[in-house]
Amino acid sequence: MYKVLLFGGTVEGRTVAEYLNENKIPAMVCVATEYGESLLPQGEYLELSHDRLDEKQMEEKMLQMEDGLVIDATHPYAQVVTENIEAACERTGTAYLRVVRQESQRLEEEETITYVKSIREAVEYLEGTSGNILVTTGSKELASYTSLTDYQERIYARVLSLVEVVSSCASLGIEGKHLLCMQGPFSKEMNVALIHQFDIAWMVSKESGRAGGFLEKYQAAKETGCKMIVIGRPKEEHGVELEECIGYLKRRFVSEENVTNDAKNGITDTNADNIESAENPETESGKIQGTVEQESVMQETFTRETKEAAEDILLGQKVSLVGIGMGTPDTLTQEGKQALESADLLIGARRMVEHIKRPGQEVWTGYKPEEICAYIAAHPEHKNVAIALSGDVGFYSGAKKLLETLHRELPVVQKKVYCGISSMIYFCAKLETPWEDVHPVSLHGRECNLPGLLRIYGKIFAIVGTTDGIAKLCQKLQSYGMGDVRVEVGERLSYPEEKITRGYAWQLTELETDSLSVVLFTREGKETVVTHGIPDEAFIRGKVPMTKEEVRSISLSKLQLTRNSVIYDVGAGTGSVSVEMAMQAVEGQVYAIEKKPEAVELLYKNKEKFAADNLTIIEGLAPEACVDLPVPTHAFIGGSSGNMKEILELLLSKNPKIRVVINCIALESVGEAMNCLKELPLEQVDIAQVQVAKGKKAGSYHLMMGQNPVYVISCQGKEETDE
Q1: Strand 589-594 relative to strand 615-619, pairing
Q2: Pairing between β-strand 69-72 and β-strand 132-135 as defined by DSSP bridges
Q3: Which H or E run includes 349?
Q4: Cβ atoms within 10 Å of 404's Cβ, excluding its own
Q5: Helices 79-92 & 284-298 angle (0-180, nearest 10)
Q6: Which among 170, 235, 223, 173 has a CA at the least distance from the CA of 194?
Q7: Which segments of 302-380 does DSSP mark as H helices, in order?
Q8: 323/417 Cα distance (integer angstroms)
Q9: Alpha carbon separation from 74 to 136, 146, 270 (Å, rounded)
C-alpha cells in the first residue's frame, strides 16, 4: 500500500520520486506518457504508471491510501490536470501539496525580451518581424505557427526525438534542417551554438522556470543578441518549491523525532488543515499551509486568451466516426470511403486500419475513447481526423461511448457520423434470410438468456467474441431440450478466409470457431404464449405446496415486471412463480430462495423443463440467504417462515424503491404483513383477497370446489428524504 500519490513527469517530479524511493516511502508515480515513465527512477518502493487518469480514476487511487498524501508536481502549463487532481483531493478528503517552479525574474527592462499572454499572440507579433525563429515550446503547438508568412523558411522547431513527433511535424511542413530533434536539458552553450548555426533572430519560449531551462535560454539570447518572445504562465502559481516539499516529506515520513515534536506543538496533518499548520506563520510548515490553502481557493482555468487560442485551433478540426463494415474496403460505403481517404489522421484498432489506410496517411492505433480524445487534443495540426469503427456505428459499436466522450472533452470540434454495414445485415444477406424479424444480441463479454429469447423471438443473431462461445451456447440449448434449434455460423466475414457453417445445436456442441464470428439461431414452428398463465398441471409438483394458476396470474400482474427486472422469489416452493417471472423478465434475472431440500429439487426440475436459463436457485433461509445477491428491482414473498419484517427490511436496504408482492393464507401471516405496512417505509399499498373455485366433474355433473382464500398484498418502497 503506497503512502504517496505523485503526479508529474517534470524534473521536480523525478527528484521527489528519487527521494521517496531512497527513503523507503511507498509511492505511486503517475505520468502522462510512456516516454515520461521511461525517465522516472526505478525502485522497489515506486509503482509507476503512464495511464492518463480522469477525476474518477484519481479518486479511486486516492481512496486506496490510508491517511495518504497527494503531490502535484505536474508542468506549470498542465492546468487542467492540476484542477482535476485538486478536485479529486477535495472530494476524497486527501491531503494535497502543489510543487511549483521558482519564477524566473521578469526582465522587462531588457529590450531583448517581449512578454505575451499566449502562443496566438506570439504568432501575431512575429508576423510583423523578419528573421529566423527558434521555437522551443514543443510540438503540440506548432500548428499555430503555420499561419506565419513563409513559416517553412523561418521556423526552426526544437522538439523531442520521438517518431510520432517527427511525423507530426513533417505533416505541417516542418522537416529537414528546420526540425531539431533532441532531448534537454540544454546548457547556455548549446543554445548559443544553435542560435549561431541557424542564424536565429527570435527565440520563442515559455516561462518554464529554472528547471525548465529558461535561464539558459535567456543567457544565450543576451550573449548573442537574439531577441526573445516569452509566453507568460497561464496563471499565478501557488504552492511550495522543491526544497520545501523535500523538507516536508522528511518531517512527515523520515524524521520520527520531528513528527513527534510537530504533534506536541499542535501541528496537524489532516485535509481540513491541508498538510500542516503552526502558530507561527513564518515557520516553514506555516508557509506550506498558507500556500496550499491559497492553491485550493485561487486555482483557476487558463487565462481567457490562452483558452481562446486553444479553442481557435480545435475549431478547425473535423472528426469523422466511420463505420467500416466487416473490415475490408469492399464493405465500405462510398461516403465512408471518402471520409477515410480525405483524413490526414486515421485512428482505429490495428486490425481495422491496416486494411483501409492509404499510403502516406498518418495512423494512430487505439480504441479507448479517453485516449482517442487526448490524442486528438494533443495534435491540433490534424485538421481532418477519421476514426474507424467496425460494422455499423449504431450496432453494438464503440461509437456510442466515443461520441459521449468527444462531446464532453472536445465540444468545439466538428463531428460527423457515417453509417456502415453491420455484421447482421451482411450475414443475413449471405444466408439469403431477411433480418426484419431477427433479434440481435452481443455476447462479447456478456451473458444472455438465449433459451428465453428464442422462445419469444424465434430468431436470434449474436456476436460472439471467443472461439468456444458458440459451442457453449449449443451445449446449453441441448441441455434444455432445444437441440433442434437451427444454427448458422459466420467466421471472418468479408475476408478471403470467410467461412459459413450450418447445422443444429445438437451437432455443434464441440464447434471451435474464429473469435471474429457471428451466429444466427432459428427456432422454427413453435408459437409462444406471450402472457403468464402456465397450467398448474404443466409443473412437476411432488408434495410441495404451489401457488395456483389464478392467484399466480393476479400476483404477477400486481408485481408489474419489466423485461430486465431482477427479482427475488422468497419461499419459492415448486418454482411455479419463479418460472413464470423468468419467462416474463426474459432479459432479467430471477433468484428463487428456498429452504426445503425437496422443494429445491423440484425447482431444478422445473427450471430444466421450462428452459428458464435466467433462474438461479438459492438454497437457504431468508433473509440470510439474500444478503449477497444482486440488488433486486422486484420481490415476491410466498413464504417467510415468520421473518416477514426482517425480509422486507433487507429488501428495502438493498433498494428503497423496490416493488413487492406478498401472498398470505394464514391470518397470522396477514397480521404480520399489516404490521410491516405500518412500520416500514412502504407506499402504493393494495390489498386484494382472492378466492378461487375450480370445477370438478362428479359423474355427469360439475361441482365447484373452493380453494383457500389468498390475500395478495402489493406495495412499493418509499425512499425517505431529509426534510
Answers
A1: parallel
A2: unpaired
A3: none
A4: 11
A5: 100
A6: 223
A7: 304-315, 334-341, 350-356, 369-378
A8: 8
A9: 19, 28, 23
Cβ contacts of 584 within 8 Å, gap of 6 or more: 532, 556, 561, 563, 565
Full DSSP string of 164-220: HHHHHHHHTT--GGGEEE--S---HHHHHHHHHHTTEEEEEEE--TTTTTHHHHHHH
Of 364, 346, 297, 327, which Cα lies nearest the Cα of 162?
A: 364
Please, are residues 370 and 358 in contact by the beta-carbon 8 Å criterion? Answer: no
pLDDT in tens, 631-658: 999 999 999 999 999 999 999 999 999 9
- DSSP run (H or E) holding 95: strand 95-98
Which three cell numbers, joined as nine digits, stand for 363? 495512423
- The answer to whether residues 140 and 331 touch, using CB atoms and an 8 Å cutoff, is no
Grid cell locating 523: 427456432
Whether residue 636 contacts residue 570, with contact meaning beta carbons closer than 8 Å, is answered with yes
**In this predicted model, what pLDDT tens digit does every residue of 447-481 receive, in sequence order?**
789 999 998 899 999 998 889 999 999 999 999 99
Task: Report CA 37 to chain centroid distance, whole Å.
Answer: 23
Assessment of whether the complete model's pTM goes beyond 0.85: no
Give the CA distances from residue 638 to residues 594, 672, 706, 715, in Å, rounded to whole numbers and listed in that order: 10, 13, 20, 15
3-state secondary structure of 116: strand
Strand order across the beta sheet in which 439-442 lies? 439-442, 459-464, 517-522, 486-491, 499-504
pLDDT of residue 290: 43
How is the beta sheet containing 362-365 ordered, strand by strand? 362-365, 345-348, 384-389, 318-323, 414-418
| Helix or strand holding residue 46 (H, E) | strand 46-49
Grid coordinates standing for 432? 439469403
How is 654-691 classified by DSSP, letter by letter?
A: H-TT-EEEEEE-SHHHHHHHHHHHHHSSEEEEEEEEE-
Cα distance between residue 9 and residue 76, in whole Å: 11
| Grid cell locating 697 | 366433474
Number of alpha carbons in the 13 Å side-chain half-sphere of residue 604: 8
